[in-house]
Amino acid sequence: ADVRERVVRGGERPVMRAEWPRSLAALISTCWSSSPSLRPSFPDILRQIDSIVADCLISDPSGRHLWTRYYLGKDKVVWEKLGSAMISQLALKMTTKDVAMRCVKSILDEKDTGSVSINDFNDFLQWFGPLTRNTFSEVHALL
Question: In terms of Cα–Cα distance, which of 99, 141, 108, 100 is closest to 127?
């Protein structure tokens, strides 16, 4: 009863760890609000969790922006759509059929399944990132 009393009547909350992503700490904080009307709805919580997952799994800011903009809540996407999204975000004058993009596809879709996981996307960005207008030509030059 002592812990419950401190939480319910005293508004005490567990301490959040400094190494937690800020987005996770913010979500937990709002969920712990003493006023139920200030707490997020369950659909809002799910959307925020999807964003937190992307924050945690994709370290490159440009790549993370792309994934959360187009694929929030997905752990795997179709290569053609991801390739087109990268081209669009970087305002490149190419298609997914260009040699440089086929080189990128050979790395991202190594098993030729037609899809790319969020983990494979992050691995690619770790090796060749950050995601910039030059990423594709640099990959092409290496291969």
Answer: 108
For the chain, the C-alpha Rg in angstroms (whole number) is 20
Contact 143, 106 (CB under 8 A): yes
DSSP labels for 23-75?
HHHHHHHHHT-SSGGGSPPHHHHHHHHHHHHHHHH--SHHHHHHHHHHHTT-S
Give, in order, the Cα–Cα distances in Å from 52 to each of 25, 105, 142: 10, 26, 33
Higher pLDDT, 20 or 107: 107
Q: Are 105 and 96 in contact (CB under 8 A)?
A: yes
Taking phi over 0 as left and psi of -120 to 50 as alpha, with beta for the rest, 60 belongs to beta
Instruction: Provide the mean pLDDT of the chain.
Output: 92
Tell me what pLDDT residue 1 has.
57
